[in-house]
Amino acid sequence: MSKYGEAFKYQRETNGLSQSELARKTGLSQQMISCWEAGKSLPNIDFCAQLADFYGISLDELVGRDHGREKDGR
Q1: How confident is the model at residue 70 (pLDDT cuts 50, 70, 90)?
Q2: Residue 40's pLDDT is what?
Q3: 58 vs 48: CA distance, rounded Å
Q4: What is the C-alpha to C-alpha distance for residues 73 and 48, in angstroms, rounded to an integer?
Q5: Distance, C-alpha 30 to centroid of its chain
Q6: Do the Cβ atoms of 17 and 25 come closer than 8 Å?
Q7: What angle do the packed helices 2-14 and 30-38 form, to 10 degrees?
Q8: What is the H or E stretch that residue 2 is in?
Q9: Of 17, 24, 38, 70, which residue is the least packed, with the fewest Cβ within 10 Å?
Q10: 10 lies in a domain?
Q11: Cβ contact 46:53 at 8 Å
Q12: What is the CATH number of the domain that holds 36?
């Protein structure tokens, strides 16, 4: 689960935001953001979509998922 937390933190820091700034701009709680980044919990898909939309990126990018696939399609 920590891979997702690292990806969430990366996006926030890349956008030059503190957790409290992100919380204020998105309406999410700073405590939730902190838990997600620490890998203590995962956001539901609605929160993921909200964050991806806020950053202007895909859900794959938000969670740090590589877009490249192996030749066998996996």
Answers
A1: very low
A2: 95
A3: 10
A4: 25
A5: 13
A6: yes
A7: 130
A8: helix 2-14
A9: 70
A10: yes
A11: no
A12: 1.10.260.40
pTM of the predicted structure, to 2 decimals: 0.83
Q: Does any domain span residue 39?
A: yes
Q: Which residue is it, tokens 């996006």?
A: 11
Is residue 53 in a domain? yes
- 62-71: b or e for each residue (b if 16 or more CB lie within 10 Å)? bbeeeeeeee
Is 19 within a domain? yes
> CA–CA separation, 41 vs 67, rounded Å?
24
Q: Which domain holds residue 28?
A: 2-62
How many domains is the chain built from? Answer: 1
Do 62 and 49 form a contact (C-beta atoms < 8 A)? Answer: no
